[in-house]
Specification:
The complex is a heterodimer of chains A (about 350) and B (about 625).
Chain A lengths: L4 H6 L21 H12 L10 E5 L14 E4 L5 H11 L4 E7 H7 L1 H10 L3 E7 L34 H8 L3 E6 L3 H13 L4 E6 L11 H4 L4 H4 E3 L7 E2 L5 E6 L2 E6 L21 H8 L8 E8 L5 H16 L4 H6 L3 E4 L1
Parallel strand pairs in A: 1-2, 1-3, 3-4, 4-6, 5-6, 7-11
Antiparallel strand pairs in A: 5-11, 8-9, 9-10
Chain B lengths: L3 E4 L2 E9 L4 H14 L3 E7 L14 E9 L12 E4 L2 H7 L8 E5 L5 H6 L16 E5 L1 H8 L7 H5 L2 H12 L5 H10 L4 H20 L5 E4 L8 E7 H16 L3 E5 L6 H8 L7 E4 L3 H13 L3 E6 L1 H17 L3 E7 L16 H6 L8 E4 L5 H16 L3 E6 H5 L1 E5 L44 E3 L14 H17 L9 E2 L4 E8 L3 H13 L5 E5 L1 E3 L5 H5 L2 E8 L4 H10 L4 E4 L8 H12 L6
Parallel strand pairs in B: 1-8, 2-5, 5-6, 6-7, 10-11, 10-12, 12-13, 13-15, 14-15, 19-20, 19-22, 22-23
Antiparallel strand pairs in B: 2-4, 3-4, 9-16, 14-21, 18-20
Classes of the chains: A alpha/beta (about 350), B alpha/beta (about 625).
């Protein structure tokens, strides 16, 4: 009698609880990380992956405690190296779904090199960047995403460095799925996590995350009910970039410059508004969207900024191995050692 | 008149020319030919760090030394018997090493005003009497090559490039070696460039004939096959042997091999070599930097591969933090350090043994690892295999030390039979019952449970672990227990490695304790002083941490302990510390291996007037 194992395994139905480990969660009360953890656990049953095939890898920082709280395989690495460790896991066993939990310091400062190269190679990793614009675990120094002029413990007179824009870096380095979400918009965050899980290629999700201790309210103008509508534009494929409490504002592309238009001014209409194409084959609009946060007066885009497909590093690597095995045959010790110029001493 | 053939035991030949003259190729062809003839051999290339220094300059001289013999040999030879000098700079740089009365085959065609000036010769050494103590054989290789190829349509530049094969042809004649190994190589190498193939074959034959017919050469030599142990042999360089050793360990253990690496001299050839073996399931990840090289290997080890990383001294420094992570997570990885002259960029193409203490202590916290050191190019194969076995069976990081001398040097490897290689036992845990990530067996080894295994989902990482259970723990007593566990696990490896063997008497006046690549020079030096009727014993170390269990006892039986090293006394420091013994240091840091004579002289100095009895 045949047993249809495939059918059985896909019938494993998980709930969020199945993804919670037995370890006590120890972030500060009110930390945005709690929400990210909860949304990931709620989304995980939707991934269509067996729990034992999911691996969470992290570096160092508050966010990097994440793997301990997930009831999957987990690896808490060292500062900055999560993407490199995760690449090793994925290459060694491409059947695994490999996630990276990281922060703005971990991934964009000490780990910058690994991040851009993972994006460049399109390694099939899912990277969730917890961006709170501050070093939390070391108690409040400015981070590479802190805004210029930021007063912190290590910049009492304000920083003089310009910040990184994570979306711009990911897009520029070649990530094939780039999205932004917010800790305080749980449903949307779940959607972004699930979308990342289903993407075949490097998926990058920047999550704007509140640090209540060292950078409280950094994103409140985006996340709070009263101010959110005027400061955030939700991107949806095929839909116009409309925002505002009364959905009365839109983004128009004036050449390569995005401008905010008033849909009720009698001059502009919905037909003038930029319609979002997630799968745009040309990266120009992706870059324009990534710059919104650098330009005064433009809303912050959240949602999938761009998603496109190209062969993955791990996929191509293992195809190459399979190709060579079918051409040359699987290597054996005899072939390895006795193929060169050998001679016998009797 | 047939020229006479004189049988000799061994000979050392050095090929020297511009880095673009093909000296490494000429040397390796000669090597393959003598190997096929059944000689024992040892080779040492010597090339500049610059890829192509200006033509004709002293900085651009590239050399390849080959020692071959009818008996067992251990080194590429102290001083060449024969120097092939393709230009004035090559003569200038290499003459000082040649044996008094040695033979110089010199390309007179390159001794023009420009090349003489580039080599800082004020007068032509071929015309003054400065070479009168040598047997100089002047041959206009350039002209003879051009004449041989007169009727071919190749460019003059292409024709001239063949001149190294004229020299090779002469040497094949002189040492009574057949041409067929090189002819076959040319046929396969230039299968798609028939004219180049034809040109080189013709020039090789012409060189051979030149030796046979001209009056300049009066004597031919023959070196009979060596009486090596039975078996099938192949010639291997150290880097090649490391690669083969790891693939063999992968085949034996049934695990795929994963290499995470970043190119660095003199280790890059291991990465290059392994990248050719994808159909063996070998994954070579050329990482963005040294740290990603080891970090990816740690990830691959977590996922259940035989994971390794390869580097040289500066790269090892970059990997040290990650080695701490491998120590903490107790994952099996092998780190190969092909040592070179340091610190910093130092002497990247030259050899040194100055990373022993970095391998031993170069980490934060108490972070012991197992350390092996290969003793010869062929031994690199066995060391890579053993390092893999220890890492996998003891769930521990292992550092394998080789060096530039071993990496580029070559010698015959007696290819072991697959069935005779020791088993490598890997047991992935699959049963969730009673599974705890940091439980241990009697050897302090924790279980290896890999992602993809249902029911064994667990988290590990760099934070201190609760003994047995593996959850994060900051308890004071627990940290002490875990530090001790990690140390005991490494110390326990001593139960699984062989005791050191003493070559010679087990007690007496003097024992020489060597490690790593100095093996050959020390062994030959001791053989030589014994021929003078002196008594000296030899202990060679391959296991640097933990030391073999009997080491302290063994060396305590000698009045003097001499420790030659290519550093300022790193093994000496470890021996003094561990065994509270006094040792006599003998140190050299010139980027060059020890000469046999240097060790001999030192032994004689230590023995003073007596003969060691």
């Amino acid at each position: 009698m045949e047993t249809k194992i495939d059918n059985l395994t896909t019938q494993v139905k998980y709930t969020a609880k199945d993804f919670a480990s037995d370890v006590d969660v120890k972030w500060c009360p009110g930390c945005g990380d709690y929400s990210i953890l909860a949304q990931v656990q709620r989304s995980s049953p939707e991934f269509g992956e067996l729990r034992e095939n999911i691996v969470w890898v992290s570096g160092i920082g508050c966010s990097s405690r994440f793997p301990y709280y997930m009831n999957t395989y987990g690896f808490h690495g060292i500062h900055g190296r999560a993407a490199a460790i995760a690449t090793g896991v994925k290459l060694a066993n491409p059947k695994l779904q490999v996630w990276v939990a990281t922060g703005d310091g971990d991934m964009l400062s000490i780990g910058g090199n690994h991040f851009i190269h993972a994006c460049r190679k399109n390694v099939n990793l899912k990277i969730v960047l917890f961006n709170n614009k501050i070093y939390g675990l070391t108690k409040g120094q400015y981070s590479p995403t802190s805004e210029k002029g930021k007063v912190t413990k290590s910049s009492p007179y304000g920083t003089v460095d310009w910040p990184f824009n994570p979306i711009k870096i990911a897009a520029g380095a070649g990530a094939t799925f780039v999205a932004r979400a917010m800790d305080r918009d749980p449903k949307h965050l779940q959607e972004m996590i699930t979308r990342a899980a289903k993407h075949n290629g490097l998926a990058f999700v920047e999550v704007l995350q509140n640090c209540p201790i060292f950078n409280d309210g950094a994103f409140f103008h985006l996340t709070e009910k009263e101010s959110r509508p005027d400061n955030v534009v939700y991107l949806e494929h095929g839909k116009p970039l409309v925002f505002g409490a009364n959905q009365d504002k839109g983004i128009k592309l004036d050449g390569l410059d995005p401008v905010v238009i008033n849909l009720n001014d009698g001059v502009h209409s919905i037909n003038d508004v930029w319609v979002h194409d997630e799968h745009d084959s040309n990266p120009t609009r992706e870059f324009i969207l990534s710059r919104f946060t650098d330009v005064e007066g433009l809303p912050t885009p959240v949602g999938v900024i761009r998603q496109y497909n190209k062969p993955t590093y791990d996929g191509d690597y293992h195809h190459q191995i399979q190709d060579l095995i079918s051409k040359k045959g699987k290597g054996t010790y005899e072939k390895l050692m006795f193929n060169a110029n050998t001679w016998e001493v009797k | 008149m047939a020229k006479k053939i004189q049988v000799i035991d061994d000979v050392t030949i050095r090929f020297a020319g511009d880095s673009g003259d093909g000296m490494q190729l000429t040397g390796s062809q000669f090597t393959d030919t003598v190997a096929a003839m059944g000689n024992d051999l040892s080779t040492l290339p010597d090339f500049p760090a610059e890829i192509r220094a200006p033509a004709g300059s002293l900085a651009g001289v590239s050399g390849f030394q080959l020692h071959f013999s009818s008996s067992d040999i251990q080194t590429p030879g102290d001083a060449p018997d024969v120097l092939v000098a393709m230009n004035p700079a090559a003569l200038k740089v290499n003459l000082k090493d040649l044996k008094p009365g040695g033979t110089i085959i010199v390309n007179t065609g390159s001794f023009d005003t420009k090349n003489l000036r580039l080599a800082n010769y004020s007068t032509n050494p071929l015309e003054d009497d400065s070479l009168s103590n040598y047997n100089v054989i002047p041959v206009d290789l350039t002209k003879l090559t051009m004449t041989t190829l007169e009727d071919l349509t190749l460019s003059n530049k292409e024709k001239e490039k063949c001149k190294n094969f004229f020299a090779l042809g002469i040497l094949y004649w002189m040492y009574n070696r057949p041409l067929d190994v090189t002819m076959k190589w040319l046929e396969s190498k230039f299968a798609k460039k028939p004219e180049i193939m034809e040109a080189n074959k013709r020039v090789l034959q012409a060189g051979y004939n030149y030796g046979d017919t001209t009056e300049i050469f009066t004597t031919r030599y023959d070196v009979k096959p060596a009486q090596l142990p039975k078996g099938i042999y192949r010639n291997v360089s150290g880097n090649e042997a490391v690669a083969l050793g790891f693939i063999t360990a992968s085949l034996k253990s049934g695990l795929n091999l994963f290499l995470g690496s970043y190119p660095i001299t003199p280790a890059s050839e291991i990465l290059q070599e392994l990248s050719r073996y994808k159909n063996y399931g070998v994954i070579t990840f050329q990482a963005e930097d040294e740290i990603a090289g080891i970090a990816s290997a740690i990830g691959a080890a977590f996922a259940g591969n035989l994971a390794i990383t390869t580097t040289s001294g500066p790269g090892l420094s970059l990997k040290l933090e990650s080695i701490g992570l491998a120590v903490m997570t107790e994952l099996p990885i092998v780190i190969v350090d092909v040592q070179r002259g340091g610190p910093s960029t130092g002497l990247p193409t030259k050899t040194e043994q100055a990373d022993l203490l970095q391998a031993m202590f170069g980490r934060h916290g108490e972070a012991p690892v197992v350390i092996l050191a290969a003793q010869s190019p062929a031994d690199c194969f066995h060391c890579a295999y053993e390092a893999s076995k220890i890492a996998l069976e003891h769930m521990v990081p292992v550092i394998l030390l080789t060096d530039g001398y071993l990496a580029f040097g070559s010698e015959p490897l007696n290819i072991p039979k697959f069935d005779e290689l020791k088993e490598i036992k890997v047991n992935f845990v699959t049963n969730p019952e009673g599974y705890h990530p940091y439980s241990r067996d009697e050897n302090f080894v924790r279980p290896w449970a890999i992602p993809g295994t249902p029911g064994l989902e667990h988290r590990i990482g760099g934070l201190e672990k609760k003994d047995v259970y593996g959850n994060i723990s900051y308890e004071p007593d627990n940290h002490q227990i875990m530090v001790n566990n990690r140390l005991n696990k490494v110390l326990k490896v001593a139960d699984f490695i062989p005791n050191v063997e003493v070559d010679g008497d087990t007690e007496g006046e003097l024992v020489v304790v060597s490690w790593g690549s100095t093996f050959g020079a020390v062994k030959e030096a001791i053989r030589n002083v014994r021929e003078d009727g002196k008594k000296v014993s030899h202990v060679h170390l391959r296991h640097m941490n933990p030391f073999p269990k009997n080491l302290g006892e063994v060396i305590s039986k000698f009045k003097n302990i001499l420790v030659p090293e290519l550093n300022l006394g790193q093994l000496s420091l470890l021996l003094r510390n561990q065994f509270k013994c006094d040792v006599i240091q003998f140190n050299k840091v010139k980027g060059q291996p020890f000469k046999v004579s240097e060790i001999e002289n030192k032994i004689n100095e230590v023995l003073g007037g007596n003969n060691g009895n």
